[in-house]
Specification:
Blueprint lengths: L1 H19 L2 H14 L3 E4 L10 E8 L2 E10 L6 E2 L1 H13 L4 E6 L2 E2 L1 H9 L3 E5 L1 H11 L11 H5 L3
Parallel strand pairs: 3-5, 4-6, 5-7
Antiparallel strand pairs: 1-2, 2-3
Helix pairs in contact: 3-4
Length: 158
């Protein structure tokens, strides 16, 4: 049990670090992360951003891209993003001509928020704190992977 806790302690460290960022810093972090996924995004954030922090394109094939709008919300882990916030973001994304949206938060989404994200257009990809950690790990953004010997691997050779 202690080993599993140690294996996941990096998530807690990551969340603490993300919460120390300013809202502007968190937007810049999200842009950096999404750019590692080959998205071409420009910042629109700041006062008067009308709910859209980043806008640009995301590749869906080697020859096709779609317009995406991104909103980055650095909320407390105990908070939840609800249906109303997702619906408002969908309206804002539509007004900016986005075909898809990505809503990133350090917290979590309610069930009704998840339903709204899929039931209305544009479709919104929801990235909660857990998935944000997974993306950081997978893309090696803000997370260092240390090599560890897998003792079970060698069992088959004994």
């Amino acid at each position: 049990m202690a080993e599993a806790d140690e294996d996941e302690s990096w998530r807690e460290d990551l969340w603490k670090r993300l919460h120390r960022l300013t809202p502007d810093g968190f937007e810049r972090f999200v842009r950096h992360l999404l750019r590692t996924l080959k998205m071409d995004l420009k910042r629109t954030g700041g006062v008067g951003d009308k709910g859209i922090d980043l806008i640009g394109t995301a590749p869906i094939s080697p020859v096709l891209t779609v317009t995406v709008a991104v909103q980055a919300e650095r909320y407390a882990p105990s908070s939840s993003v609800g249906r109303a916030e997702v619906a408002l973001f969908q309206a804002d994304a539509t007004a900016r001509g986005a075909e898809y949206g990505i809503l990133v938060t350090t917290s979590r989404f309610t069930r009704s928020a998840r339903e709204t994200a899929q039931d209305r257009r544009p479709t919104i990809t929801l990235i909660d704190g857990e998935r944000l950690g997974d993306l950081c790990l997978g893309e090696k953004v803000g997370v260092v992977i240390r090599p560890v010997v897998d003792p079970g691997f060698f069992d088959r050779f004994e």
